[in-house]
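Review form for a predicted model. The reviewer records the input and the model, then writes brief findings.
Reviewer: anonymous (R2)
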Amino acid sequence: MEKKLRRSSTDKWIAGVCGGIAEYLGTSSALIRILTVLSGVGIIAYLIVAVIMPGPED
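Model under review:
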């Protein structure tokens, strides 16, 4: 099965971006969220990624 980068439908706080990245990389979503905050990625960048990244497959 091919892995696809998508927003998570189960592991999300706002839009599922960090949860989707964590599922794709096979790591903890908490780690991705901490790295996102520490790296200085702002709210605008998060929202842009939320719009660009495809939603979960139903």
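Findings: Residues 29-38 form the longest helix (10 residues).
Further findings: The CA atoms of residues 1 and 24 lie 12 Å apart.
Recommendation: see findings above.
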